Amino acid sequence: MTRDPPEHRCHTPPTKRCRVCALVGGWHDSDLTSAGQKAAAEIARVLRAAIPKDTQVDLFSSDLRRTAQTADQVAEVFGVRPIMDRRLRAMYFHGRRDDLFEQRGVRTSAAEIEAAALRAPEVRDAAVVPSHDRRGAVPFVATALSPDELVRRLHAELEAAKIPAVCRVLPRLPVGSTGKTDRTALRALVDDTGGDGHRA
C-alpha cells in the first residue's frame, strides 16, 4: 500500500498590521529592493530547510509585485508554480480546503482559475465554485467576453486538464451584505441551466 506524500501549503507575505483596500498605496507595483531580494532568498532557504523534500507543496501569493517576486524565489527552490490570488492583498488569508479539488485527475485550485480569468483585461470579476462531482469547478465571470472566448483565454493560461468543463458569464457577480462576492448565491446557480455558459 502506498501513502500519499505529506502536504504543505505556503502563502506570502507574513501577516502585516495594515489595512488593504483595493490597491495598496503608491508602492503596490514596485519591485523588491536589493535588501528585499536577499530577504526573499533567505525566506526560500529557510522554507526549503524546514519542509521535507517528499512533501507536496502548494504556493499561494498575492499578485502585488514585491510579494510575487518573493514567491518566485520560493517557487524556484521548490520547483513549483506560484498561484497568484489578489485576495491575499488583505492582511489575513482564510484558507479553505474546498478551494482545492481534483479535475480530470489533476489537483486544481479555484484561486488559480480565478487568477487566470482575471488576467484578461475584459474580465471585471471572477469567482470559481468548486464541485466534487464529475462536473469539476464552475467559474462565474463578469465580462463582456462570450463563454467560448473566455475558455480560449483560459487555455492560454492553464494546462488543459484544469480548464473547467462549464463556464458561466454574468453581467455582474452577486454581492452579499458585507460587500464581498456571495458564493452561496453562486452555488445555487451551479445547477441552474439558464444563463450564458460554455460546456466543454
From TrEMBL:
Q: Which residues form the AMP-binding enzyme C-terminal domain?
A: 112-180
Question: A Pfam family name for this chain?
Answer: AMP-binding_C
Domain of life, per lineage: Bacteria
Keywords assigned by UniProt? Ligase
Checking PANTHER family in the record gives:
ACETYL-COA SYNTHETASE, ANTHRANILATE--COA LIGASE
Question: Know the name of this protein?
Answer: AMP-binding enzyme C-terminal domain-containing protein
